[in-house]
Automatic annotation (TrEMBL):
Native source organism of the sequence: Roseomonas nitratireducens
Listed name of the protein: EAL domain-containing protein
Record domain EAL: where: 15-261
SMART domains per record: EAL (SM00052)
Pfam families for the chain: EAL
Domain of life (superkingdom): Bacteria
Amino acid sequence: MDGMAAQANPDEAVPPDLGADLAAALAAGGRGLRLDLQPICAAASLAPVGYEALLRWDHPVRGAIPPREILAIAASVGRGIALDAWVMVGAFRLRATWPEGGPYLSVNISAGGLLKGHAGPMVRAALAATGADPRGIVLELPEAAVVADLAGAAALAAELRGLGMVVSLDDFGGAAGSARALRDIPFAVVKLDAALTSGLEDEGTDRARTAIASVVEMAHALGATTVAEAVETAGQMRVLRDAGCDALQGWLLGRPGPLAA
């Protein structure tokens, strides 16, 4: 979990100066904010098939601010939706510069954006502002928010599909009600939560390997492809390949960085 996929903790104490600084950064067009990209690779060939846009903030005094903290700061000053919009426009504008038929760009919708009903209008506005081809964009919906509002998530997913986008269920397996979300909403992509993939090695238990294989099989049976997050070792990669996982993402295959990297 990273970037906009990280969920803010409403109980975190946020220094007032950081809230004011983030509000000022957004008012200045996103000064100090940036989007790094992390490759998503086909499991069989390890060739990049897409990239995930991940939010970063380089504060002029405090330095790099962790993604989860950025979201908490934005929420504390009522700028969560403005931050969502900045990420959406920045990511779509980047994808608009890529060649037609190139790798897809995966963008996270925050829990707040989904639960408060802002996501659909925000996506439409970002497409209009950037001219990006929606067919080259994957929108990731956080599982916890999907489970919290299945009807709203289903309506949003249908709206996004109507625009030509691919809709992904992010962090699958991290919240109660995961299977129902996958059953009720026809997601095209399911991203396996780090809780399912972290530490998974060739030496792992038969139960762990069977669980991963079962999740992948269930997703495939429902017409979805699978992406495993937090892949950090060759042992994990071998187990996930053997389980039939379609694509892999993690530090083993590439850390987040600027597009030029």
